[in-house]
Fold:
Amino acid sequence: MDTSDTTKPCNRGWPLVLLPLPLQGHINPMLQLANILHSKGFSITILHTRFNAPNPTNYPHLSFLSIPGVVVDGNISVSSIVGILNFIEYLNDKCFNPIKEYVFVTSVADELKLPRIVHRTSSVSSFLLFAAFPVIRDMGYFRRYSDEAFFVLSQSYEHFFAEMKSEALVKGFEPLKIKDLPKFLTSDPEGPFHKYFHASSSSLLAQDQTSISWLDKHPHNSVLYVSFGSLASIEEPEFLEIAWGLANSKQPFLWVVRPGSIKGSEWLETLPDGFLERNVERRGYIVKWAPQQEVLAHPSTGGFWTHNGWNSTLESICEGVPMICSPSFGDQFPNARYVSDLWKIGTVLENGFERGEIEGAVKRVMVDKEGTEMRNRVMNLKGKVDKP
Ligand code: UDP
Structure:
């Protein structure tokens, strides 16, 4: 076992081993949890792959152990739910034996009869929704709920359903019934972790701090922040619709365009000639990766156009920022429905990326009375989250 980048374990408290899925949206909450548990006196070891490894120097109080043998090449894509399921299968296969040497996780923990806790980084409601999918499907509701219909398109979802069911049982839930869901949906005793620790130190990409100095120059609640997280990717025509929708809205925007997130492009090269000079330099700013929590907490940020990853959704609520929702896959769909239909703190772009609809949504959230009402409601929700 390669322990070359191992830091010395802290000699205090009960030992806990944490193994995050090596993706940004999982590493952030897992390291926040690690900090919380450490502050309660536990001795924490983070087991990680070399791929997307967290930076141990940001956490001198935690120990880090690297699992060897996980090689992530160009064949693995994590920008879709099928890609992520394949990636998890690959990790399960490659990590089983090395982890056994250190101790751990599901089948390893079962074999060694060790207690384990699964930290799901999605919302309770989306977890329960997915766990109930087989029932919903058998009742024939998928035709009516278009957001979820994509789940039945691939065989791999059968495997996913089985995983969810076994996890639900491990957590001690009764086999799920739809009528029981509401009683789970209202319970949120511990989170969100963002209240306790910022996710900045676990960022895998360099966060462009000029985002903050650019925001400093703008009036209160005037800027729309645009980011679709660490995994989602879009087609080139969609990118252009986003660009024109933002430009036509005439509202200031801070836009994260992650290199590689536009299929077939490096970065901004597909924007038409003169677009940057005419539309971006005047009222916009484009960065490759932003300090998201600081951006959302900035007084100039008045709206967040998001893919509704659960971290992004929570971070927006914690800072009282209304949302425009463009879910891409998985739990992002139910998250977006909660934001728009239940909490009424945002609006979903129902037709994907279409410049006219984008322009209308940006104006509604940033300028119109409807946006002010959404902002009041999300501030109210933030107040509830802030309560000890
Ligand atoms: N994030 C960031 N800078 C960015 C965009 C995102 O630091 O420019 C962080 C964000 O604060 C969040 C995480 O990356 O904690 C993304 O997680 P989320 O669950 O929202 O989406 P995922 O990337 O897993 O799809």
Notes: Residues 50 and 294 are 28 Å apart (CA to CA).
